[in-house]
Amino acid sequence: MKKISWVTLLLLMLFGTFHADAADAPDFSMQGADGKPYALADYQGKDLVLYFWATWCPACVRDAENFKKVYETYRERGIEFLSVSLDRDLSKLNKFLAERDIRYPVLFGGKAWDLPMAADYGIDSTPSYVIISKEGEIIRKGAFSGPLEQDLKKMTEGGRDSLQRAPDFSGTDIRGVRHALKDYQGKSLLLYFWATWCPACRRETASIQNLFPRLQQKKIELVTVSLDQDRDSLENYVRESEITFPVLFEGKAWDNRIAQDYAVQSTPAFVLISPDGKIIQSGHWSRELEKILKGSIPPSQSAENPV
Predict the structure, then answer these.
(1) Which CA distances in Å does 289 have to 6, 8, 190, 272?
(2) How does pLDDT run across 245-300, given as a tens digit for each residue?
(3) For the whole model, what pTM was predicted?
(4) CATH for 170-277, among 3.40.30.10, 3.30.1360.70, 2.40.160.10, 3.30.70.360?
(5) Which of 51, 74, 94, 120 is close enough to 26 for a disulfide, judged by CB 3.0 to 4.6 Å?
């Protein structure tokens, strides 16, 4: 299958002509921890989930048991699964697999973040997943098994269009302005989820503010969703940080309706929505958005994970 970077696909969808073959998943061929060979060609005509993780990643370890349940549930419904380990130590990996009674295939290259497959798929943090359709097209990227489970439920019950359709939302920002998905029909929209209690979000604030004018230049609208509970503290932070982008507020933390509808389980997080209302990218960091604007994704060297 034709190799193409995820950002190239994204830019084509946002700013240029989108060709039918532009979403082809990058080809791969790797050995598994079990010593068997695995290749993308083996899954032609089947829906496939790639799940990137590592035993040294605390979030991955916490996510392991639920991912195992997702695998067992949807494997029976015809979805194929391949997990991709970013470990370097095969013996440590095999010990973990044995202790957890993990039976799904685990690809192993022993190169951590230098693994070419991770770079080819634009993986910037772990755990991350990629859903590839039976036609060999990338139709969804995300993080953690919870959102993956919701995605697979949508896909198996409502088809591919249901999976890609952005959930409707509406909310009021701290300046009293109402925002809804329908307001951005025909426009590219970036939804950014954050909170002042999240250390990683606070580190990212200045970067997101700096990106705001550049996103506008690219005709990408930005709406952020705060998972704070204290409105006064949020407003003080917004004022002191000289934030000018919209900040929607409900005061419900993780019970925020929009965060739940978009299956957000960690912050910071973003979702990029196309002008026709489809989710075409998700991620966590401002550096990912920088690379989108620059049009290239170099291999990540960071093992940083969101909160």
Answers:
(1) 12, 13, 10, 10
(2) 999 999 999 999 999 888 787 899 999 999 999 887 778 889 888 877 776 443 33
(3) 0.67
(4) 3.40.30.10
(5) 120
Structure tokens at 224: 């952020």
Specify the pairing of strand 106-108 against strand 80-85.
parallel
Angle at CA 274, nearest 5°, toward 267 and 128? 40
Residue 52 has phi, psi (to 5 degrees) of -95, 130
Give the C-alpha separation, 60 to 64, whole Å.
6
Percent of the chain with pLDDT over 90: 71
Distance set, CA 88 to CA 32, 43, 106, 300 (Å): 13, 26, 13, 16
Query: How far is 132 from 24, CA to CA, in rounded Å?
Result: 9
| Beta bridge mates, 142 | 129
Q: Tens digits of per-residue pLDDT, 27-37?
A: 999 999 999 99
CA distance 84 to 132: 14
